[in-house]
Amino acid sequence: MRELAAGPGRVLSALGDRMPKGLYARSLLIIITPMVLLQAIVTYMFMEKYWQGVTARLSAATTKDIAAIVELYQQMPHDKGTTDLLQLVAQKQLALGIEFRPLEDLPPRGARPFFDILDQALSDEIRMRIGLPFWIDTVGRSDFVEIRVKLDDAVLRVFARRSQTFASNSYIYLLWMLGSSLILITVAILFLRNQIRPIQQLANAAQDFGKGRDVQNFRPRGAREVRQAASAFIEMRRRVERAFEQRTAMLNGVSHDMRTILTRFKLSLALLDENSPEYEDLQKDVDEMSRMLEAYLAFARGDAAEQAEPTDIAALLEELRANAIRQGQDARVSFQGDPIVVVRPDAFRRCLTNLVSNAQRFARTILITGVREQRYLIVTVDDDGPGVPEESREDVFKPFFRLDEARNQDHGGTGLGLAIARDIARFHGGDITLATSPLGGLRANVRIPV
C-alpha cells in the first residue's frame, strides 16, 4: 500500500520539478492551460458533432445521386445512348462527372488517411444505399473525390467535387479558433508582464537594500497587494535607516566622551616621570584602552553611513599584499574576472584587512585569491598557520570569543576582528566561512553577491 501511495507522490514531485519556477511563467501557465483545454474540448465537440454530421449529410446526398444513376443504368438498355444520357444528366443536374468503363477488378484499397472523417462517412453511405463493391479515393486529387462502383457488366467511375461530400469550410472555424487563442494569449502575456514588473522592482529594491546599496526612484506600483508590500518595504527601510542614524548619533556622543577621558589620562600620564616604574605599565594600559575603544566602536557602529560605489577589488587585494610583505610575510595575490564591483569600499577593505591581519599573526605564507563570477565575488585568504579546529570555526565569529589553542585569532586584540569581518560581509548580502587551507592552515572564504 505504501508503494501505491508513494507512486502518485513521486509523479507529482517529478512534475513539480519540471514546472517553471518564476511567478511570470507560472501565471501564464495558469491562464493558458485552461484556455488550451477549453479550445481543445470545443474543437473536439465541433469535429465530433457538427463537422462529422455535416459531412455525413453531404456524403448521403452524393450517395443518393450515385444510387439513382446506378438504378437507371440497371433499368435501361446498356448501350451508348443510355450512357451518354446518364452522363449528361449527371453533369447538368447532379454536378457529377461519370463514365462507364469496361468491367475490371477494382484497385486495391489504399491506406486510410490520418484524417478519415470523409472516408468513413462516404464508405458507410455507399455500403448502405448501393450495396455493391466499391472503391473510393479521397486523397488522390485535392479538389475531387473519386468513387468506383462495380456493376454487372461495367465499372461506374464518378468524380464529385470535395465540397459536395465534405464540410470544406471548416478550416475557417479552426482558423478563427487559432486566431482568437493567439489574441487571448497575447493579451494575457502583456497583462501579466505589467503585473509582474512591480514585483520584480520590489525584489530588486529589497536586494539592493540588503546589499547595502542606495535604493533610488522606487515607489509603490501595480496591484493593491503589491502596493501594500512595497509600502511596507519603504516603511521598514525608513525604520532601519532611522535606527542606524540614532545609533550613529549615540555612538558619536559616547566616542566623544570616552576619548575626552582618554585624553585626560594621556595628559596625566605625560606629567609623570618617564623613569618611574609605573609609567610604562600605565602607558600600555592607556594604549590598550584606546585601541579597544576604537575596536568596540567600529564593531557597534559598522559602516551603514557609507555609500556603495564601484571599487577595484584587484587593486585592493594588491594593497593588502603589499602591506603583508612590508610586515615580513610571504604574500601572493591572484584575481580572475572583472575587478570592478559595487561595494562599500572602506567597509570591505576593513573586512579583508581583518582576515589578512588574522592570518599574519600566525603564518608566514599568505595566499589571497579573488574570482568575479556572474553573480558573486569570492575572495579567499589561505595561510600556513596552525588553523582553527573544525568545531570552533563558527564560535570564532562570536564577539569577544577567544581560543585556548595555539591559534588565538585575536592575540593581542579585542576578539572582534572576525566578528566585524562577517558583519560587513553579511551587510553586503554575503557571508564568510572557514575551512582547512591547502597550505595547511586556515582558509577564510568571503562570498558576496554582485
List keywords for this structure.
alpha+beta, ATP binding, Helix Hairpins, transmembrane helix, 3 domains, membrane, 450 residues, five-stranded mixed beta sheet, Heat Shock Protein 90, single chain, phosphorelay sensor kinase activity, Beta-Lactamase
Question: How would you describe what is shown here?
Answer:
By secondary structure, this protein is α+β, with helices and mostly antiparallel strands. The chain has 3 domains: 24-168, Beta-Lactamase, CATH 3.30.450; 230-301, Signal transduction histidine kinase, dimerisation/phosphotransfer (DHp) domain (Helix Hairpins, Orthogonal Bundle), CATH 1.10.287; 309-449, 2-Layer Sandwich (Heat Shock Protein 90), CATH 3.30.565. Helices cover 57% and strands 16% of the residues. The strands form 3 sheets. A 5-stranded mixed beta sheet has the order 6-8-9-11-10, covered by helices on one side. Strands 1-4-3-2 form a 4-stranded antiparallel beta sheet. Helix 2 packs parallel to helix 4, helix 2 runs antiparallel to helix 6 (170-210) and helix 6 packs parallel to helix 7 (224-270). The chain is rod-shaped, with a radius of gyration of 44 Å. Mean pLDDT is 79; it is low at 405-412. It is found in: Cell inner membrane. This is histidine kinase. Pfam families: HAMP (PF00672), HATPase_c (PF02518), HisKA (PF00512). It comes from Labrys okinawensis.
